[in-house]
Fold this sequence. Notes:
It is a single chain. It contains four helices and two strands, in the order αββααα. It is mainly alpha-helical. Strands 1-2 form a two-stranded antiparallel ribbon. The longest helix is centred in the middle third of the chain and has 35 residues. The two termini are 34 Å apart.
Amino acid sequence: MLSLVYSHTTELNGWKESEAAVAARGADSARRFIHTFIQPNMELLMQDVQQGTLDYTLTKPEDSQVLISVRQ
């Protein structure tokens, strides 16, 4: 998509093609990280809240935030 846009111009609001490509790759990497690591754990957290099974995790002596965040 960037190649198509930059085939008609050299800059877009002060951004050169290489700079826009780096920003797009960074945004894509962040999206993939969230989709891979954060989203599955958040879905499990919502299920635990709805089913009432979160209490079991909260009563463990370990840090419950870490347990919830890295369980999958």
